[in-house]
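From the shared-data thread, chain only:
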Amino acid sequence: MSMKLFFAQNAVAAETQEVVVSDRFRDESGRPAAWKLRAISEELNEELRSASMKRTKGKGGQAMPEMDYNAYLGRMVAACVVHPDLNDAELQQSYGVRGAAAVVRKMLLAGEFANLAAKVQEINGFDREVGELAEEVKND
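Structure, as tokens:
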């Protein structure tokens, strides 16, 4: 097997996917509007994780780093949404919040956000285990 298979120019680009997140947002013809989602690199994912760390007091009053999973999930979802543009100032202003992660949480009902988060995790490969991928390789 050639190492060239793994070169950047030979990697298949992840495509954006359209998904209906909520039937509360409708297009001009009255159909539920699709959101466009993209996968992110592990490099960006690491930045999102790092930005989501907080300090908590541990034993002896020492500050300990801890992942704020809710903040991380909001950042990840926001990073993966291509359309609507969650960074649009008018969109954020209409909901009275600032920031992409804040506006997506404000826009959606709890179940809608959970479904969107699940789809984001799926397109980023979090729904597949290494064992499943190994089985695919064996079967090809």
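Helices lie at 42-51, 69-80, 89-95, 100-107, 110-123, 130-139.
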